[in-house]
Amino acid sequence: MTDIFGLLKGNPGDSDYEKKGVIVQGITGAYGSLHAKNMIAYGTNVVAGVTPGKGGQKFEDKVPIYNTMQEAVDATNAKISIVFVPAKFFLSAAKDALEAGIKLLVAIPEHVPVRDTMETLELAKQKGAVVIGPNTPGIMIPELIKIGIMPPMPFKAGKIAVLSKSGTLLYEISDALTNAGFGQSITIGIGGDPVNGTRLIDAFDM
Predict the structure, then answer these.
(1) What is the pLDDT of residue 204?
(2) Proportion of the chain above pLDDT 70, given as a percent
(3) From residue 134, how far is each of 28, 117, 154 by CA, in Å?
(4) Where are the strands (E) in the chain, listed by range?
(5) Which helix (H) or strand (E) holds 8?
(6) pLDDT tens-digit readout, 21-39
(7) What pLDDT, on the 0 to 100 scale, is given for residue 157?
(8) What is the pLDDT of residue 10?
(9) Gap between the Cα atoms of 38 and 140, Å rounded
(10) Which of 23, 102, 122, 159 is 20 to 30 A off residue 134, Cα-Cα?
């Protein structure tokens, strides 16, 4: 089973410990740009964005934008990607990421065609990659890295893993734990679409 903690924050002693790079696919769209800003503000190391046709530009005058995932991965060596594209374009974006070597793909779009999800999961299996979603609020290690659309307020660092199919319940339970003095080691929204890349049982194994 993939070491999802290792993907997110590395291992003590690694040169890039707690500095894992994240690529944002669809970073120039209204939704992608909003949440990319929020992720950066949280402390997530967003190292690149990808929007076909906008390569060479910079997001917020800082984050380089590339035309393809292969270009972004070659430039940054990142292994994590978050996808903010309309559902009808998800399969193409996911293939672009997985073929480029992404090992953790966070799929935000909802109502992705089931056939497209199944094709994505088959490719991810071949590539040894993990897919969170589609229709996920994301994944985070509180106070370290946020890859998704969740608000930061309900979460604090701790020892309890919170796994949920519902984004709203993920926030509510985490908030209740936080208010009771219990933080979270990791929170994962597995996604609300009919087929998900990571099931609850898979998340427990991780």
Answers:
(1) 86
(2) 95
(3) 20, 8, 22
(4) 21-25, 45-50, 58-59, 63-66, 80-83, 104-107, 130-132, 138-141, 145-148, 157-164, 184-189
(5) helix 4-9
(6) 999 999 999 999 999 999 9
(7) 96
(8) 72
(9) 13
(10) 159
